[in-house]
Amino acid sequence: MDDPAWPDGYLRLSASASLKTLEQTFIYHRGRDELYELDTAALAFLARCDGSRLGRELTDDDEFVQFCLDEGLLEVVAEPSAIGVPVAQAPVPSLRYLELQLLHDCNLRCRHCYLGPPKPTRLDLAAAVAVSAEFADNGGLKLMLSGGEPLLYPDLQLFIEQTAELPVRRLLITNGTLLTAKNCRWLSVDEIQVSLDGWRDGHDLLRGEGSFELTLDGILAARHAGIPVSLATMIHQGNLEEFDRMQRFAEEIDAVSWGVDILCDAGNLTRNRSLKVPLEQATPLLDYGFGGGYHGPSEGFACGRHLLTVLPDGNAVKCGFYRDAPLGDARKGLIDCWLRLKHTPLSDLECRSCSVLSQCGGGCRFRAPHPLSPDPAMCCRFGKDPTSLDS
Q1: Residue 210: burial class (beta carbons within 10 Å; 0-12, 13-18, 19+)
Q2: Is residue 1 part of a domain?
Q3: Quick one: average pLDDT of 252-270?
Q4: pLDDT value at position 391?
């Protein structure tokens, strides 16, 4: 039987939607990773859409209700079916993106890996679930499961099951070589991000002979299972002529996004610097990328304004490049760690007077030679001279 028209049915927040008070108040659709800003009246209305009241008892605003139904934010049910509709309250600044490094072990030995040689450290399952729940309870949006290689985490399936009800978008970050039709049946995540660092020759140069075919098979297994896939690519000497082919592949698999970035001088790359590409040659390739990101600047601050990483030993850090500057043990309080993080205002940067600062956002603070100095890659991309701060 068809669902009734919304005034005669019971309005209920969609299972994919949740209310979040960040710097402003939003409703978040985690399936599309999309925020919709709400005013006070809209928040009050949506908070009452718990499946226990008829639509006509809640509002007569047909245009707004139809918009929410069309966007998958609300649903209509024929019988009352009450659910909880919490409004998650975030700290200031809001912690929107959490990278959870479940372990440091990996099945590949990539020549550029910023983590360096694998280590046996793993985050305990109970701790991983507890940290994830604290993140969700405090307005978190996207939970990024990484490593190492997260598919080697022995409790990954249990973790997926035990975090299934959290109102966050779960993203698995993997090299793709271990994705199979079998594990894609229980990998009920919202997105899988796979590292594709070139076509056959370029990818294998960075990640090892034969890795390309395994990665390609993994991507196709995920798409066949109906899991959205995004791609991540590092620019290096072996893939400079392969971006057009990767672009076609991204279109073929209907990739959610494609992150393209420049190698950072850390970990294994310090022993393989010949892979690096001159910035004048590398930065134009950044334009191949598309879709959203989470490392970037916002609201007048440099990179990482809303991002935190939890390492396999439980320590929280600004991002994975800052392993030597822990903010505390996230297992004893994720938000306490978050509130210790010092954010860098763009007005503190040495390049604060630059005419394109609002466009580049200060670039990567780790890639910059010093905490407040310009990021040479972004200067090159925008045609600026980092040695001339008034340019």
Answers
A1: exposed
A2: no
A3: 96
A4: 44
